[in-house]
Write a structure and sequence with these properties.
Helix 3 runs antiparallel to helix 4 and helix 19 packs antiparallel against helix 20. The two termini are 55 Å apart. A 5-stranded antiparallel β-sheet has the order 11-6-1-17-16, covered by helices on one side. 49% of the residues lie in helices and 12% in strands. The chain contains 22 helices and 19 strands. By secondary structure, the chain is α+β, with helices and mostly antiparallel strands.
C-alpha cells in the first residue's frame, strides 16, 4: 500500500496549497540568486521545475530513494561550490537547497507547515546579504503570503479559502505594526553582534582604487552603482563645481599612477590662504574598504574620526567597511599655500619612457608663449596653451578607446588620440612635468544627479573622473580638467548613451529624454529616496539615537533602566490599545450585531431591556409574554436573525430584509403600528 493512502483525507494538503507554497518558495529564492553560485541556482531551478511538473503529472514526483539521492546531490553541490556548508555563503546555500528539496515531500499538511516555517528562516537569512528597502518590502509581501497559507492550513479565525485567510493575515499584520515600531525604537541596541557568521566585509565593495592606468576608470564608469549621497545645507552648487576629491596620485612608472611615498618630513598643510565662504553638506558614503572620504574640492574641516592630509585628501582613521555618514565643509574658491621644495621635486619626477617627441611638443609650446619674460612667469600661459592643443587637435572623448602598449601617454598623444579622462589627465600631467610645472592627479567624481524627491544629490560610479592639479606661483595648486577641453563635437555621445543609460554623467549633453524615459527616471529617483530614508531612519538607528531619545523624554539619567521601563510601559499600552481596537472592530464590523443591538435599544426605551444572561430566543419570548402586541414585529425579526447569526443562512438579502424590518419597527409604550404586522407577514411569506 502506498504511504499516501494511509494518510487521512483531512491531513492531505490540497493541490492549490501545494502550488502556492511552491510559488512562494520560488519567489523567496528569486532575490537570493544574486548571491548564490551558478550551479546551486541551477539545482534549485531543477527541483522547482520537477515540483511544478508533478502537479500536472504526479508520476514525475521522485520516490523516496530518488529523493535521498537528490538530497546527497544537493549537499555535494554546495560543497563543490563553496567547499563548506557553514558560514554565510555555504550555510545559506545549504538552507535554500534543503528547503527546495522538501517540496518533493509534501504528503501531509504538517509538511507544508514545516516548509513555510523554514521559508521564514530563509527570508531572514537574506538580510545578511542585503538590507535595502526594496528587499525588505519584497520579503514583507512574502511573509504576508506565508502567514496567509498558514492561516488557511490551520483554519484560523474561521478563514476557509485563500481570500478570507488573506484578510485575516492583513489584519494581523496591521495589528503587529504598532508593537513592531515600539520594540524597534526602545529595544536596547547592541554595539557588537551576538555572534559572527564569518561574513566577508569586502563583499560587494567596489569603487575607486588608489592607482590609475588606462582602462581603470572607464571600466568603473560603465557601472551605475551608488557611490554616495550628498545633502547640502543650503543652495546646491552648479554641476561643473561638483568636483568630489578623493585619492591624490604623485608617482608615474611609465604606465601606472600611484600615490607614491611622501617625504618623511612632510608637514601637514596650513589652512587655505584664501577662500570664499564654505558650504556645508552631509555625505552618506557606501563602503569601500579604503580610508579616503570624498569631499568637495577643497575641504576645510575634518569630520569626527578623520583628518585632512598634506595633499588635501580627507582620510578616515579606519577603513570604511560599512555605510559612512559624515558632515563636511568645503570652499569652492580658494588659494593654497606654497609646498616645500621636496614636495615640488616629487611633483616633477618623470618616468623613464618619456619620448623625444613629447619633449619636442612641450618645447614648441614654450616657444609659442615666450615673450621675453622669465619662463616660470609664463607657466599659466603654457597651461592654457596645452589645453588649447587638446581642443584644436583631433582628440576624441570615448569610453571605448583603442588598446595602448607599453608607453600609453606617447601613443595617446601622437597616435590614437582617443580616450577617457584617465588618458587626458595622465598625458597632461606628464606634459606639465616635462615643462617644469609641478603636477599631480586627483581621482574622484564629477557632478551628480539631483533627486528632487529627497532633496539630495546622487553620485554614482558612472560619475568617476580624474583631473590634474598644477602648481602656479602665487596661486598654489590650481585644478585643471583637460578632459573638459575636448571639443564637444568630438565626444562619442552614442557610446556614452549606450553605456551610461539614463544616469549619464554631467559631462554629456544627451538631449531631453522621451516621456517614458523621464517617467522611469522619476520612478528610479523615488525609489532611491525611499532607500535613503530607510537607511537614515531605520538602518542607522543606533544606541546613540536611543540615548538622545531618552534625554528628550527626561529619562537620560535612568540610562538602560529607564529604557527598559519605558519599553515595558509602551508595549503594555500598545497591546492594550490593540485589544480595545479588536474588541470594537468585532462589534462594528458585524452588521447582524449592529441590527440586533438597535432592536434591543428600542425595546429598552419602552421598558423591556435585555438582561445580561439572555440570548436572542429567551429575550424574544419574554418580550412577547409581556407585550403580545409586539409578537409579530419581534418574532419576525428574530426568525431571520437567529439562523443568520448562529447558522449558515446569512446572505446579503437577509441583511437587507432585517434592515427593512427594523426601519419600520417603531414600538411605543402603549401600541404598535399595525403596518408593521403586514410587512412581517409579507416577509415571512416571501
Amino acid at each position: 500500500m502506498n504511504k499516501t493512502d494511509s494518510i487521512p483525507m483531512a491531513e492531505r494538503p490540497e493541490r492549490h496549497q501545494i502550488l502556492w507554497t511552491t510559488l512562494l518558495v520560488a519567489a523567496a529564492c528569486a532575490p537570493f540568486v544574486r548571491y548564490l553560485d551558478g550551479q546551486v541556482t541551477a539545482f534549485l531551478a531543477l527541483i522547482l521545475v520537477i515540483r511544478l511538473a508533478a502537479l500536472r503529472w504526479p508520476a514525475a514526483l521522485p520516490n523516496r530513494w530518488l529523493r535521498a539521492l537528490l538530497a546527497f546531490a544537493g549537499l555535494g553541490n554546495c560543497l563543490a561550490a563553496y567547499h563548506t556548508v557553514t558560514g554565510q555563503d555555504g550555510g545559506s546555500a545549504l538552507l535554500a537547497t534543503m528547503l527546495v528539496l522538501k517540496l518533493l515531500e509534501l504528503d501531509t499538511k504538517r509538511d507544508l507547515r514545516l516548509v513555510l516555517i523554514l521559508l521564514g528562516f530563509l527570508s531572514v537569512v537574506q538580510f545578511l546579504f542585503d538590507e535595502s528597502f526594496q528587499l525588505t518590502f519584497y520579503l514583507g509581501l512574502i511573509a504576508l503570503g506565508l502567514i496567509t497559507l498558514l492561516t488557511e492550513l490551520n483554519g484560523g479565525l474561521g478563514a476557509a479559502g485563500l481570500r478570507p485567510a488573506l484578510r485575516v493575515s492583513a489584519r494581523l499584520a496591521l495589528q503587529a505594526i504598532p508593537l513592531t515600531i515600539v520594540l524597534f525604537v526602545l529595544f536596547p541596541r547592541l554595539t557588537a553582534p551576538l555572534w559572527s557568521l564569518g561574513i566577508d566585509s569586502s563583499r560587494g565593495l567596489m569603487g575607486m582604487s588608489d592607482s590609475m592606468e588606462p582602462g581603470n576608470i572607464s571600466e568603473l564608469v560603465v557601472n551605475g552603482e551608488l557611490a554616495f549621497r550628498a545633502r547640502f545645507a543650503g543652495r546646491r552648487p552648479n554641476s561643473n563645481q561638483l568636483y568630489w576629491r578623493g585619492p591624490v596620485l604623485w608617482t608615474m612608472n611609465g604606465r601606472r599612477w600611484t600615490p607614491g611615498a611622501p617625504p618623511s618630513d612632510w608637514q601637514a598643510p596650513a589652512r587655505l590662504i584664501e577662500s570664499d565662504d564654505p558650504i556645508e553638506y552631509e555625505i552618506v558614503m557606501e563602503p569601500t574598504k579604503q580610508r579616503w572620504l570624498f569631499a568637495l574640492d577643497m575641504p576645510v574641516s575634518e569630520p569626527e574620526g578623520a583628518a585632512i592630509s598634506p595633499d588635501y585628501q580627507l582620510l578616515s582613521n579606519q577603513p570604511v567597511t560599512a555605510l559612512k555618514r559624515y558632515n563636511a565643509r568645503s570652499a569652492l574658491s580658494y588659494r593654497t599655500a606654497e609646498p616645500e621644495a621636496r614636495v615640488r621635486e616629487l611633483a616633477l619626477e618623470l618616468p623613464a619612457n618619456v619620448t623625444p617627441r613629447m619633449r619636442a611638443l612641450v618645447e614648441d609650446w614654450r616657444t609659442q608663449v615666450a615673450d621675453g619674460r622669465e619662463a616660470r612667469a609664463d607657466d599659466w600661459t603654457l597651461v592654457q596653451r596645452a589645453l588649447a592643443h587638446f581642443n584644436r587637435e583631433n582628440f576624441y572623448y570615448t569610453l571605448l578607446p583603442p588598446k595602448l602598449g607599453a608607453n600609453p601617454a606617447d601613443e595617446f598623444l601622437f597616435e590614437t588620440r582617443s580616450g577617457f579622462c584617465e588618458h587626458y589627465a595622465s598625458s597632461f600631467a606628464l606634459l606639465m612635468r616635462i615643462a617644469g610645472i609641478p603636477s599631480r592627479i586627483v581621482l574622484g567624481y564629477l557632478g551628480g544627479e539631483t533627486n528632487e524627491f529627497g532633496g539630495y544629490t546622487i553620485v554614482r560610479q558612472s560619475d568617476a573622473h580624474a583631473w590634474v592639479e598644477v602648481l602656479i606661483e602665487g596661486r598654489g595648486w590650481v585644478r585643471v580638467d583637460p578632459t573638459a577641453a575636448v571639443d564637444p563635437s568630438r565626444i562619442d555621445n552614442r557610446v556614452a548613451t549606450e553605456l551610461l543609460g539614463a544616469g549619464a554623467s554631467v559631462r554629456f549633453d544627451l538631449g531631453e529624454a522621451a516621456a517614458l524615459a523621464r517617467w522611469m527616471r522619476d520612478l528610479r529617483l523615488l525609489s532611491d529616496t525611499l532607500e535613503a530614508n530607510w537607511q537614515n531612519w531605520v538602518l542607522d538607528f543606533s544606541a546613540q539615537d536611543q540615548r538622545r531619545l531618552m534625554e528628550r523624554l527626561g529619562l537620560g539619567a535612568w540610562q538602560e533602566y529607564g529604557l527598559a521601563v519605558l519599553m515595558v510601559l509602551a508595549v503594555s499600552l500598545t497591546l492594550g490599545g490593540i485589544l480595545l481596537v479588536m474588541m470594537r472592530e468585532r462589534t462594528e464590523r458585524d452588521p447582524l450585531e449592529r441590527l440586533y443591538a438597535r432592536l434591543c435599544r428600542r425595546l429598552a426605551r419602552i421598558g423591556l431591556p435585555r438582561l445580561p444572561h439572555e440570548g436572542p430566543g429567551d429575550y424574544g419570548q419574554r418580550v412577547v409574554a409581556a407585550r403580545p402586541d409586539l409578537a409579530s414585529g419581534v418574532g419576525g425579526f428574530l426568525a431571520l436573525y437567529i439562523p443568520a447569526r448562529y447558522g449558515e443562512r446569512f446572505t446579503p438579502e437577509t441583511l437587507q430584509r432585517l434592515s427593512n424590518l427594523l426601519r419600520d419597527f417603531q414600538p411605543k409604550a402603549q401600541s404598535v403600528q399595525s403596518a408593521f404586522r403586514g410587512k412581517v407577514t409579507a416577509s415571512n411569506g416571501g
